[in-house]
Amino acid sequence: MTAPWITYRPELKVLDCTIRDGGLVNSHAFDDDLVSAVHRACIEGGVDYMEIGYKASKKLFAPGNFGDWKFCDEDHMRRVLGENDSPLKIAAMADAEKTDYHEDILPADQSVLDVIRVATYVHQLPVAVDMIKDAADKGYEVTCNLMAISIVQEAEIDQALEVLRDTPVGTVVVVDSFGALYGEQVARLVQKYRAALEGTGKEVGIHAHNNQQLAFANTIESIVQGANRIDATIAGMGRGAGNCPMELLIGFLRNPNYRLRPFLQLLEEHFVALQEKLRWGALVPYNITGQLNQHPRSAIAMVEGDETHQYVEFYDKLVADL
User: Do 308 and 272 belong together in one domain?
Assistant: First the structure.
């Protein structure tokens, strides 16, 4: 018998997406001090990537309704990051059909960004492929997040992976958008992605949501199955139920290049107070949507509304609409 959990895999890399996914909790209106603190913790903690926000279209999203991190303009990023003179790579997410990527994503040598993370639903794949090629041509490392994978048909997943295999994307990420997947399902998906991309040098990633309090467990399972690109957030902050907590992940990985203390300090100095103002985490409404494999938008509305604890009525309505 071996004990692989006491060693580490050096090719595995960690991405902090606190400001990007956490921005869905507060309309991306983080103040500069917090963004700077997360940036500093990521550097001191030794993680590999920090996703600072979205490259969203200002034609679709009015800037007055969102904070700076919805758009990640170069002057906004440099205001906080400077030139990011560190080994930490800076990423931004570009949603298919919600990004004016030809104009708003500058050539990499003109940007503080190192990575463009293209996020797409399967039906948007033709647009996503063009976005991937555009970003690669501009000199970026590029990843693709296949969203809401728990409701995608097997044949569609296979076709998407076949298409992505022939693009310059460097990583394809399994995204459990609804927090509906169990470990066995995550294992099968990671195996499927790895098999489809075998021989290309492309990596498989995981982005887990915590609706059923399985984000950390599912992230561990994906690592066991060979996923080498791992997403996490401070205190699990993210839309609705949130994500895999960075402070748990770093403790699990055993990699001496990663250091837990900076993230604990960040939690203590910033996120304790933040959690008193903003609500995220595996609350019962999110448990219900996760178990029913549904988008958490109805649960978010419930948590933010006046009927937060009317669980039975909420459950009955969702079941009746199935």
Answer: no
